[in-house]
Amino acid sequence: MASWFPENVSTMGGEVDSIFWLIYYITAVWFVLTEGMILYFIFRYRRRPGQRARYVTGDKFSELAWVLVPLAIVVALDVWIDIRGTDVWAKVKGQRPAADIVVRATAKQFNWDFFYPGPDGKFDTADDLRLDNSLHVPVGKVVHVILTSQDVIHSFFLPHFRLKQDAVPGREIPVWFEATKPGEYEIPCAELCGFGHTGMNGLLYVHAADDYERWIKEKWPVDK
């Protein structure tokens, strides 16, 4: 079943996957038990000659237990999921590590604009670099992406990194990731944003350290 997911190539992807599998297996076991009980009751209390239907009032504790016990189990499982999920949420959202690279991502119908601050380390200056639908980062470095939108709500989605965050007009929303494997990975928009939504698909290029340095020198030559 792990083949359902694209390959995980981020440092936080394992924790996100663990929450999915926890919910999946709890739901699967509960489904089997519930459907099994339904089938059992269908067979056990089927209409047969000489057997009268039984009317259950539900006012006895032994009868109420059929409701109260499953309720207690569901509440306990929900608390377990919440506790596990809180830890993952804190890592993904609340405890962002210090950034090695900061990039702005501006969504618009129907593409991604990525802005690099250049050698001066500041945005909105002459040495800024704008790339259309292309995000370049090095492997093993923490990347902060500041998301915003020029028009409608879009959604920045990195399936291989288990990262998804809406880009909202008028807001700057930070996200982060750290790649563990070089390669090319898609950046689809995961929010229906108009007639060209399906074509809003950028590419994330994760470079080895030396390749990223060469890319940097190509974009900002030392003698420039």
Topology:
Elements (H helix, E strand, L loop, with lengths): L12 H32 L16 H34 L6 E8 L2 E6 L12 E4 L1 E5 L3 E8 L4 E5 L4 E5 L5 E6 L4 E6 L12 E7 L1 H11 L5
Parallel strand pairs: 1-5, 4-10
Antiparallel strand pairs: 1-2, 2-3, 5-8, 6-7, 9-10
Helix pairs in contact: 1-2
Strand order of the largest sheet: 3-2-1-5-8
Structural class comes to alpha+beta
β-sheet strand percentage: 25-35%
Which fold name corresponds to the CATH topology of the largest domain?
Answer: Immunoglobulin-like
Please count the beta strands (DSSP E, at least 2 residues each).
Answer: 10
Contiguous uncertain segments of 5+ residues: none
CATH architecture of the largest domain: Sandwich
CATH superfamily of the largest domain: Cupredoxins -  blue copper proteins
Order of helices and strands: HHEEEEEEEEEEH
What value does the average pLDDT take?
Answer: 90
Tell me the span between the first and last alpha carbons.
52 Å
Helix tally equals 3
The figure for the number of domains is 2
Please report the first level of CATH classification, the CATH class of the largest domain. Answer: Mainly Beta
Question: Helix coverage percent of residues?
Answer: 25-40%
Shape: elongated
Radius of gyration: 26 Å
Largest β sheet strand count, sense and barrel closure = 5 strands, mixed
